[in-house]
Amino acid sequence: MRLLERMRKEWFMIGIVLAIAGAKLEPSIGVNGGPLKPEITVSYIAVATIFFNSGLSLKTEELTSALVHIKLHLFIQIFTLAFFPATIWLFLQLLSITPINEWLLKGLQTVGCMPPPVSSAVILTKAVGGNEAAAIFNSAFGSFLVSKHDLTHLFLLL
C-alpha cells in the first residue's frame, strides 16, 4: 500500500522515466516522420497547448487590456529579436579571436537569435508577479514571427 501511495505522489517523475526508457528502447517512434510526428506535435500542438492553458488562467479583461500596450510589445519584440541578437553577435566577434571552438560560437549565435522559450517566459513572469497577459502575447507573437518569417536567418548571416 505504501508503494502505491508513493507512485501516485511521484506519477510525473515515473512518467518521465518511462518515456525516456521507451525512447531508448524504440527511438524510431519519435523521429521526424515517425508515428508521433514530432515536427507537428512538438512544433504546433505542444506550443498551442501551452498558450491555451496559460490563456485559461487569465481573465478576458486582463488579456484585452494587455493587447493595447503597443509600446510595451514593440519594445519587447525589438529587444528580443534585434537588440539581444545584435549584442550577442558583437560579443561573438570578441570571442572569435580566442581559441574557442568555431562550432560552439555558431551554436551561441543560433541560440542568441531565438526568442525565449514559451513556457519559460510565461512561468517566470508569473513567478515574479509580472504582466502575465503581456508575457503570453509577446511569447506567442515572437514565436510566430520567428517560425513564420524566419527572422533568425537575418542575424545568422551577419
Automatic annotation (TrEMBL):
It holds the Pfam family SBF_like. The chain crosses the membrane at residues 41-58, 70-92. One of its GO terms (cellular component) is plasma membrane. Keywords: Membrane, Transmembrane, Transmembrane helix. InterPro entries: Na+/solute_symporter_sf, Put_Na-Bile_cotransptr. The keyword Heme does not apply. The keyword Membrane applies. Belongs to the bile acid:sodium symporter (BASS) (TC 2.A.28) family. This is Solute carrier family 10 member 7. It comes from Neovison vison. The gene is SLC10A7.
